Amino acid sequence: MIPAAFDYVRVDSVDAAVAALTEHGDDAKLLAGGHSLLPLMKLRLAFPSVLIDIGRIEGLSYVRQEGDQVAIGALTRHCDVNASPELARHAPLLAYVAGKVGDPQVRHRGTIGGSIAHADPASDLPAAVLALGGEMVVTGPSGQRVIPATEFFTGFLETAMSPEEMLTEIRVPTATAGHSYQKFVRRAQDWAMVGVAVARYDGTTGVSLVNMGPTPLRAAAVESALASGASAADAAEVADQDSEPTGDANASPEFRRHLAKVLTRRALEEAGL
Amino acid sequence: MSILGNRVLRKEDPKFLTVGGTYVDDIGLAGALHVAYVRSTFAHARILSIDTEEARKAPGVVAVYTAADVDLGPRPPEMPMFNQAMTRSLLADDTVRFVGECVAAVVADTRARAVDAAELVQIDYDPLPAVVDVETALRDETLLFPAAGTNLAMDMTFGTDEHFMDGCEVVVRHQFLNHRVAPCPLEVRAASAEWSPEGRLTQYSSTQAPHGVKSGLAGALALDEAQVRVLSPDVGGGFGAKMGTYPEELLVAWMARRLGRPVRWVETRSESMVGLGHGRGQLQEVEIGGSRDGRILAYRLNVIQDGGAYPAIGAVLPFMTRTMLSGVYDIPKVEFNSRSVVTNTTPTVAYRGAGRPEATAAIERVLDMFAAEIGMDPAEVRRRNLIQKDAFPFTTPTGTVYDIGDYVRALDLALEAADYPALRAAQKQRRESGATKQLGIGLSVYVEITNGMPSSEFGAVEVRPDGTVVVRTGTSPHGQGHVTAWAMLVSEQLGIPIESIEVVHGDTDVVPRGVGTFGSRSLQAGGVAVNQAATAVVERARQLAADLLEANPDDVILDKVGQRFHVQGTPAAGRSWKELAAEAESQGGLTAEVDFTAPGPTFPFGAHLVVAEVDTETGLVEIKRIVAVDDAGKILNPMLAEGQVHGGLAQGVAQALLEEVRYDEDGNPVTANLADYAFVTAAELPSFERIAMETPTPVNELGAKGIGESGTIGSTPAVHNAVCDALVHLGVRHVPMPTSPQRVWRAINEATGKASA
Ligand SMILES: Cc1cc2nc3c(=O)[nH]c(=O)nc-3n(C[C@H](O)[C@H](O)[C@H](O)COP(=O)(O)OP(=O)(O)OC[C@H]3O[C@@H](n4cnc5c(N)ncnc54)[C@H](O)[C@@H]3O)c2cc1C
Predict the structure, then answer these.
(1) Ligand 1 atom at shortest distance from the alpha carbon of A39
(2) Which of A221, B20, B385, B502 is the most buried (most CB within 10 A)?
């Protein structure tokens, strides 16, 4: 488990990180908690030639309430998201989901920015931000821009960020009208075989799916069924409508579709619908 | 007061809990080189060419070897019963036969450089069809070893009576796959080798049997055994898979000799998942026949054993399955036949239980199916067929002689502790209410064989002039706690506290002979040897004290509290252990060595009851309770015994529920890391409810049977039965292991006529 050789740069500001990304281009990778990137490198499935360590940039680990949004710094670790009183009060889904990621060791190293930038469809936090209708603040050579979660995840492990951009903040609306996260796992620390996140805010219900396609997915069919008055049970029946689940050793695509429906119903019910 | 039978804390633990253990890879040898193996990425292919040019030129590389360089010829299978044409080269020569087989070895000055250079070795393969499952193998359409003319490594035929089931009112047949699992010791394989200028080899090895490794090395390298020293420091688990000598280890010694420098090797987890032997892998055709009132009259098991690419211990394990064929039941007629085949997969070896879990799983599962067929409670069917306690020694129809047991009591204890009637009532209620989560209650009553083929084991006890004791043992603990257990045995005899008793193992220069630790043999073989050596030392000391006190030895007693010998009634004049040891120094010391061979194996038994909750919508299984009665005869240290049972239960649950080694149709492993391979953790297990039962065996003076494997043997079928039991009322007859959510979901759909894929 030894990665291929690489160069290592440590930066102490977002600007320096962006400058380093601009300098090294496609061969460079940002290193945050390292808990997605390093395993890939050790298995020699990823070979960045330069690692830009952003782990010690100050001021990027925070949770703040700002108006009707909660802003989370990209370097906030899963354990801190999980324990945040602001999130518990204003966006409890996100806090809860962060507590379901991996095991305590992973939650004490992994960062929310790393998880979302990595854009793994089997990850928990991207789906939570999607269900919440959140947005990502990214910083690049020409400054900041805001990308809605619905436009952020563009393909398998691909996002709307350009190679010189860095994710600096995640914003979610306050959503306190009910939530649920159904993570289907065989073992406590596993990745979700299928997951369903539900958040209710502003009189709407956001529903998203984990591991049901190449990206974290919004269950738009369920959301619109609910909007037009369908019961939780009926709405859940269309949970797999726009999904493209793959099969693996644990689950066939059909089983994943079945699970998505069952879990969506349970999630909606738990969220009070 | 006797120290035996007490929960004595492990002497080993302070070190593990503070500074940590010393494993093979913690031992740095001055000037050592590191090896990285290049492994086959094909399950079955001809090697057209290997280009090592670039690797040789890479920084730090000292040598790159392929089969053409290794002057140790292909080796026939070690066991004579296998087809001897199924030979194995240490590095694959013209053909690779499983993903993970070593093809080349890269030696460099650092591990990282060896790994980097290994990536540069170019191998040109011509893929051959992969034989992945045992039924395909039997058809002999693709041969792994054309010279052998067959994929059959060995077979055993004991009968094919066409009228076998005549007279049975009910016959139940089923095919079970006792699937492959990976042993997953926390410490992966590691070895390092160093040669002295005089040509003596010192090899460090993570093994369960250092003396076996010594013989293996001597044999492979054509050395006299005296020229080999094997050291196994702390070993982080083996589970049966670290018994033999793997090609990687032999090559480490060979390369160190060739290069004149020490060579070190440690595998990664991903390598270990394909390189370390796998366990189980038995396809079973099971038939059981009996009467409507629950009497079993005939039982037949035909198996195809998956030996993997090169026949090793795994391929011979059906023999152990046959030995324990009829389990705890008194069945008039049994039949067993087996065929062991080679496939393009990792070779199978012994794994916790080794052939016996397969026997127990088959009969315990089909017994439940038989009970369902005749509509009788599975506990009752068991009760009606158990061997009675006055029937021992009991000879089974396959000729196995069980020493002693009380199976009815084991079953009763488990049923009582679990409150079986209340559980059945709760189950009934859930069924009637149509709850999403249904309850299943699973039973297994088992008997197994430990120290199966008794061989000699070495034990020595020496009292040193400073009054401390050194014990040398041929067993090779890797988590079992022999350092504590053997010290307890010696302390009991000598009266010297365990703190002053040192137990030495794992150095073939210090321990002259030994067999090692596997098959739950250690206490009843090595423990007895140590116990007898302690007795002999006490006798020598008594004799010496009698001489010094000018008394009759028969009148001299050992005051264990005072740790001294004196004439009965005159304690004032006596001799302490220290004095006697000092006195004995000129006469060869106060020491005794024993080589002990047990007169026969022992047969631990027990009953497990598992309560499982099955989500009928998602197929997810949650184990609520595990009640375990495990009788391993007289217990030396209940805490150590519990440790063995707990680990055993966990691994047994794991096989029933989670763990499964899988290959795709091309023979690519799809479970080759611990994310894909569902290694069980504490979070998936309930607290174990262990019920004590001790029926001492007459086979040895300690009354002890082995307890290393029984937890695994009993728990797999109990869990499996619990999952299936939760679904019987839905018409589900059987769910294959491991009972994953998808398998449960499919079984329910099949039974209820819903479509699923
Ligand atoms: C054993 C184990 C179990 C796990 N289980 C789960 C689980 O159950 N659920 C789950 O969701 N996750 C799981 N994870 C993944 C974990 O949550 C990771 O921490 C997370 O996915 C990535 O965060 P990180 O900070 O470690 O990112 P890193 O590994 O450092 O980086 C990941 C990727 O994102 C990029 N990146 C990082 N930060 C930024 C940024 N600010 N801007 C732009 N790009 C960036 C990196 O360049 C890299 O490509 C598990 C990980 C392990 C090792």
Answers:
(1) 53
(2) B385
